[in-house]
Structure to design on (716 residues):
């Protein structure tokens, strides 16, 4: 049985680089991606924002949803799954609630626009909710949590995905891992959680597979329904473990229902019928405490909660942190010393840029 | 390593009675509790509703949050933690969002009133949200999910609790298990999930302890931070395992922040300072699809999602079900054959009633 205090390290900030990583200045990374997006016919301001959202993922230590996905993002554009110039449109307005159509535009731009709109609705009404259909993968979901919190909002968003987890008792993928983001603003560092409903992402499992290692905790099922930690088998079976076993499976199902019913868009079962994951559904919800007359001030309460958390006694070699704490540490270091990127991916992206005319 | 298909059985509907159980007609159970509550100075209609909410928990197979808690509920009344005649009051109104004060009234009546108000707000605005401070344990949270769904609403609610789970890496309880309820209405049976953020409730762990059995899956930590399944040790250490390990720990923290910041009420760390858990904070959120012009009709989409789920291939001896499916089966059987109650608890409750003057 794994010792938690040892395995805790696995999920945490480390200042060393992986074997095949190099550091690129944040501005260089953003500018490079921006230039490529311009060649892919993005309007200049949208190229800038899209590049920034990719680069921010690496800056914050989430390379799996940043540069590493960029080549696949371009492939989806080339093959017609993403319309670079499509913008989300309002399809129904009901006071503090709005329904939007993503028109198959770039998922990160759509999500950024829609969280921005949910922020605006909450600043007007105290609370604002926006549902979005026909959008694409939002890449790093945490970006939209930080975005809401930077505006002083409590932000919640979630997305559905293609089927990639089994139902509880099921032997094939029928549920999405449906990432959920929750953010609470705070002067000295927002509290932001960005988590898929699978215990480990497939990206994380590929990393362990490439190192020939087992996952530190149960991560999925084998073909007989036993819990296992072997990334190779889990990837092969597409049987990732929902967080909390039956609980995460149920949560995934209901979040998919809420996003697809309210947006009128596709559910995970619809997405599973497509040749590639696209045209997915999302929900964005914001609360703006100053408009809701909160007392005591939100900052004081949040600080008190974090102070209590941080004063917890710890297991040996463990370090109790709040969600978002390590992100800020990474961001500071990477802004100063350069953003870690996978060398092969970086070189591949550079060739993608050089082969196109602007 | 436990086989999922075997352990799945553990969480499911079984039509047999446990050794010390007997069946009581639902009406008898409700009437008995109602009579006792009248002797505790409840107004007649509130005694009726409070008794019904307790009895419904047993009816639906959640005795741990029904009759089993009734003696402790009465104790809290006798010792002044619950004010039987206190009613929730609106402390701030912002269109579709309202802030209420529970005035330390009975937690289940407060929660029922507040979910009812969130339903009304959503029927008026399309979406409605209510935050509640100074309330008490809502007993069986699922009741409020079924309540919202019976009104045709998508309902979401959560509550904070006293500290009863460790932070990730922490060796003492600092987080609440903060139960979350999500409900989606459906003509042929609502989809309702009612889950605490610990893998197992302490009630469930006490049951295993009394049988001298280990939990079927990892359930908490020993004093060295190892994952264990031994209910006795986990109860002793108060180190229940958050669902999804670090993920559930983070989720618990943020839900506590949201409930306490928006309501202006106590956070888990405040509740931990009290001599007994009370004056807690909750949030109730409803969406009313007909007011939001959803298309296709919510029922069609939900049915299609469930059909896809139920068509999943299964591991041997497993049965894929949706949250709420087993509840309806239990409810039908218990309404017909009588509601299972623990014999000792039932006899104890009868003595509680007979010792008081009305």
């Amino acid at each position: 049985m794994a010792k938690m205090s040892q395995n805790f390290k696995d999920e945490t900030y480390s200042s060393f680089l992986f074997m095949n990583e190099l550091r690129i200045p944040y501005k260089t990374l953003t500018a490079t991606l921006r230039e490529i997006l311009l060649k892919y016919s993005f309007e200049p301001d949208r190229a800038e924002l899209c590049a920034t959202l990719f680069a921010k993922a690496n800056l914050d230590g989430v390379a799996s949803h940043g540069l590493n996905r960029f080549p696949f993002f371009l492939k989806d554009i080339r093959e017609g799954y993403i319309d670079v110039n499509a913008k989300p449109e309002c399809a129904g307005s009901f006071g503090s609630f709005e329904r939007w159509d993503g028109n198959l535009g770039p998922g990160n731009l759509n999500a950024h626009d829609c969280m921005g709109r949910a922020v605006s609705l909450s600043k007007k009404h105290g609370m604002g909710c926006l549902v979005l259909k026909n959008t694409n993968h939002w890449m790093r979901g945490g970006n939209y949590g930080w975005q809401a919190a930077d505006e002083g909002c409590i932000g919640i968003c979630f997305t559905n995905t293609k089927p990639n987890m089994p139902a509880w008792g099921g032997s094939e993928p029928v549920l999405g891992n449906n990432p959920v983001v929750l953010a609470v603003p705070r002067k000295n560092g927002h509290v932001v959680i960005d988590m898929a409903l699978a215990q480990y992402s497939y990206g994380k499992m590929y990393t362990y597979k490439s190192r020939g290692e087992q996952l530190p905790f149960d991560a999925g099922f084998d073909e007989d329904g036993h819990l296992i930690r072997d990334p190779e088998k889990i990837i092969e079976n597409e049987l990732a473990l929902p967080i909390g076993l039956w609980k995460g499976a149920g949560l995934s199902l209901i979040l998919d229902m809420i996003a697809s019913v309210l947006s009128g868009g596709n559910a995970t079962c619809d997405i599973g019928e497509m040749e590639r994951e696209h045209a997915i559904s999302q929900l964005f919800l914001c609360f703006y405490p100053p408009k809701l007359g909160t007392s005591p001030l939100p900052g004081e309460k949040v600080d008190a909660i974090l102070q209590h958390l941080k004063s917890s006694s710890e297991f040996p070699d463990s370090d109790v942190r709040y969600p978002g704490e390590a992100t800020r540490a990474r961001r500071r270091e990477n802004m100063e010393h350069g953003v870690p990127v996978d060398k092969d991916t970086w070189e591949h992206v550079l060739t993608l840029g050089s082969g196109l005319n602007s």
Observations:
- Chain B touches chain A through 91 residues (CB under 8 Å).
- Chain B has 13 helices and 13 strands.
